Amino acid sequence: VHQSKVDFFCKLGYGKQDICKVMENLGQEALEDDVLKELIRMGSKPQALESQAQPSPLKLVARGSCSASSGSKWLGEDESDSSDHLRPIVIDGSNVAMSHGNKEVFSCWGIQLAVDWFRERGHTYIKVFVPLWRKEPPRQDSPIADQHILEELEKQSILVYTPSRKVKGKRVVCYDDRYIVKVAYEKDGVIVSNDHYRDLQNENPEWKWFIEQRLLMYSFVSNRFMPPDDPLGRHGPTLNNFLSKQPVLPERKWQPCPYGKKCTYGNKCKFYHPERLHQAQLSVADELRAKIKVPLSLGKEEEQHNCSP
């Protein structure tokens, strides 16, 4: 009997030492209710409640270090956008470099400016795609400026070269635009380019929607990378919402009525009237009747009489 009572209170979450102590004080024949009252009077709490009352201490993690749960990731896998609230960025390197070089020079400095701009915003996943043949020494028909930047970005695992090779002296180049759109689509990210990729839009209807909704165009102003504040037009999302996985909806701001108290639109006015906050929204005719103290029912009867043939 003693063991069954101990087991019963252990299932409730009380400690075995507290239970034995109470049983010794009250005796072996004590009722379960009496034992429970004594446990409560002693201040003993079930272990489940104690674990809820005492939250686990917070672990301080060094900035930039990975948590214990992330140890199961592959070594080659990027510190991806799973916990990041910003969208992955996929940059069309050729388009950005030629735009910065005024379509005459492949300017690698333009790619660096674009990468730095997204880094400063906090984006962790940034990929730049450039054809492999851009590693070759520059020629007169394809000049390259600041080519060492490509090597630095490649070491940082930001730059990715799309394949190309030579067959019988002729260069065979893989279509880098397909890499750009495919990676951005799979990562649910943003494409940074001034190209519209019309051939790829016609090729895949899902890519067509994605390119229309996730293409971020840009301009270079005095060596400054500048995307638009409204990437999808005046009525579209802001740049912050466009680059964020969880866009923040702006609060509705009411524009005050330009006519003020002289407005004659009544409850049909779409503007804000601070003087009407505590007033019923009446029509202009009802407001006039109220001013001359004419009953509303009488005014409506007159309107019906005038409207009748």
Automatic annotation (TrEMBL):
C3H1-type domain ranges (all copies): 251-276
Assigned GO CC terms: cytoplasmic ribonucleoprotein granule; nucleus
Pfam families: RNase_Zc3h12a (PF11977), UBA_6 (PF18039)
Keyword Metal-binding on entry: yes
Keyword Acetylation: no
Single GO term (MF): zinc ion binding
Chain positions of all zinc fingers (C3H1-type): 251-276
Cofactors (names): Mg(2+)
InterPro entries the record matches: Rege-1_UBA-like, RNase_Zc3h12_NYN, ZC3H12/N4BP1_RNase_Reg, Znf_CCCH
Superkingdom of origin: Eukaryota
UniProt xrefs under PANTHER family: N4BP1-RELATED, RIBONUCLEASE ZC3H12D-RELATED
Family from the record: Belongs to the ZC3H12 family.
Record-given protein name: ZC12D ribonuclease
Gene: Zc3h12d
